[in-house]
């Protein structure tokens, strides 16, 4: 059984995301977690959530889609909640962003552009590829970069439940405002951990 990510201060992201939206969003995440734990009722827990994506073949083929959907819902939400807030980017991550995207501003604009290209529900991710280079990708629904051998560093939830009550159809403003509530200290820590794993 997997335990839940703790999100206590729902109003910490106002005025960009309302406390009502965050409360509802967190409850939505808990539904994914409850569904996942039910589906894994007889699972012996030999893999962490991230590893479970890559070892989905241990389950009967008829159960895999449902497990992956809820597992993705848990992983994607936990990362999104984890990287919200305020915090400074590390020199290590900033230098890598400048190296891979020419400047931080170019990275920001590329992330915003990619997010605006997503159709339907899904996420925009900053990921590390197998060469430890940064990429920006979109995934649909509750798909996860782990399915493609990519390691997520940060993400933006673009399901309607993440923004519609606050922004209505103005998703582009929500996407722009995201950069006002990213805890780049946490993103930097995730980046450093993933680099260390792949040395």
Task: Describe this structure as you would to a colleague.
The chain is mainly alpha-helical. The protein has one domain (18-199): Iron/manganese superoxide dismutase, C-terminal domain (minor pseudopilin epsh fold, 3-Layer(bab) Sandwich), CATH 3.55.40.20. It is built from eight helices and three strands. The chain has helices spanning 19-39, 49-54, 61-82, 91-101, 104-117, 164-167, 171-177, 184-197, and strands spanning 122-128, 134-140, 151-157. Strands 2-1-3 form a three-stranded antiparallel β-sheet, with helices on both faces. Strand 1 and strand 2 (134-140) form a beta hairpin. Helix 1 packs antiparallel against helix 3 (61-82). The longest helix has 22 residues, at 61-82. It is globular. The model has no long low-confidence stretch (mean pLDDT 95).
Short account of what is shown:
This protein is mainly alpha-helical and 199 residues long. The protein contains 8 helices and 3 strands; from the N terminus they run αααααβββααα.
């Amino acid at each position: 059984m997997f335990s839940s990510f703790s999100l206590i201060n729902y109003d910490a992201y106002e005025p960009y995301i309302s406390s009502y939206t965050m409360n509802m969003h967190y409850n939505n995440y808990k539904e994914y977690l409850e569904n996942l734990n039910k589906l894994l009722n007889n699972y012996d827990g030999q893999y962490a959530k991230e590893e479970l994506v890559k070892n989905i073949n241990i389950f009967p083929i008829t159960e895999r889609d449902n497990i992956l959907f809820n597992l993705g819902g848990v992983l994607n939400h936990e990362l999104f909640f984890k990287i919200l807030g305020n915090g400074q980017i590390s020199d290590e991550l900033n230098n890598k962003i400048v190296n891979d995207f020419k400047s931080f501003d170019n990275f920001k604009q590329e992330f915003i552009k990619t997010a605006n290209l997503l159709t339907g529900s899904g996420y925009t991710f900053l990921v590390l590829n197998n060469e430890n280079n940064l990429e920006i990708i979109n995934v649909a629904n509750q798909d996860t970069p782990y399915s493609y051998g990519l390691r997520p560093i940060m993400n933006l939830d673009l399901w309607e439940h993440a923004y519609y009550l606050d922004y209505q159809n103005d998703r582009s403003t929500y996407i722009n405002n995201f950069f006002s509530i990213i805890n780049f200290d946490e993103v930097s820590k995730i980046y450093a951990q993933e680099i260390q794993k792949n040395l």
